[in-house]
Amino acid sequence: MIGKADIVAAREQIADTIHKTPLLSSEQLSLLCGNNIFLKAEHLQKTGSFKIRGATNKVKQALREGAVSVTAASSGNHGQAVAYIANKVGIQATIVVPEDVAACKLEAIEAYNGKVEKCGLTSAERLPRAMEIAKQQNGVYVSPYDDPYIMAGQGTIGLEILEQLEDVDAIFVPIGGGGLISGVLTAIKETKPSIQVIGVEPQLANDTYLSLKQNQRVSLPGSLTIADGLRTSQPGELTFPILSKYVDDIVLVTEDEIRQAFCFVLERMKQVIEPSSATTIAAAMFEKTALLGKRIVTLVSGGNVDLDQMAGLVSKPLNRM
Ligand SMILES: *Cc1c(COP(=O)(O)O)cnc(C)c1O
């Protein structure tokens, strides 16, 4: 378990690296949702997602402990974040990616001087390889969510929200492995427990929803949801107890709802966000909770969407509201 003090310490560690991201709002979105909606804009964060917060906190800690390199297993936002901060503090990062990694993701890691190693097609193959490289190099393996320093880094978003907006009633947070929501839950529930923190998952990747129902970690077969940052097949070992202790509710959104929220934000708010982040706005737009007339922050976790993928998202016919 982590505590608020860990998050306060993380904030100091990462202050010179990250952006304090704004809260955006749209009258039209608020009208549509029947609530006052604010978007915590982590798509405008360094490297394009909140992952830089946890990665910075963890890599700086590894450096203090004498690590000469770091490794991670990810083709996405976590890999970019680890490569970015390792480069910045001057240690080598090796990112283990799937054989079929998209060229643009590979280029992003290499642009930060990260070494790329291709391995298999599943995270079950990549993860042991990243750990093995860490061992060989006297380096440190950086988990995307199941690590106290990662969770504490992500939790700094919770502290920022509390400072940026008075009288928040609820915060909607997307769930993959659960590092983001564990950090935010700790920051919020140890400061102002009356604020509701609601997790959002795609219906097609509802492992955390099912796990909470069954009171144990459930593992699902690989998901193909368009919210590719939320495809993790089960909640983390460290994140699940925090989630179980604090989360107020978990709601599910469909693929079409995610797509519609993505298009709304693009068309009306002129913001490019990624499908994983559109889930929280979808939860507000499609009224997945009983909240009405409340001040809700939807956590927009990132904005890294492939141009190829974007075409598919906007060209699909929409159920106009
Ligand atoms: C990683 C990620 C998530 C999920 O975060 P977890 O800590 O794995 O729950 C959500 N959105 C984006 C954009 C991400 O990169």
UniProtKB/TrEMBL annotation:
Q: Name one Pfam family in it.
A: PALP
> Gene3D superfamilies this protein is in?
3.40.50.1100
Chloroplast keyword on record: no
Cofactor requirement: pyridoxal 5'-phosphate; Ca(2+); Mn(2+); Mg(2+)
- Record keywords, A-Z: Magnesium, Pyridoxal phosphate
Describe the location of the Tryptophan synthase beta chain-like PALP domain by residue ranges: 15-302
Name of the molecule in the record: Pyridoxal-5'-phosphate-dependent protein subunit beta
Organism of this sequence: Brevibacillus choshinensis
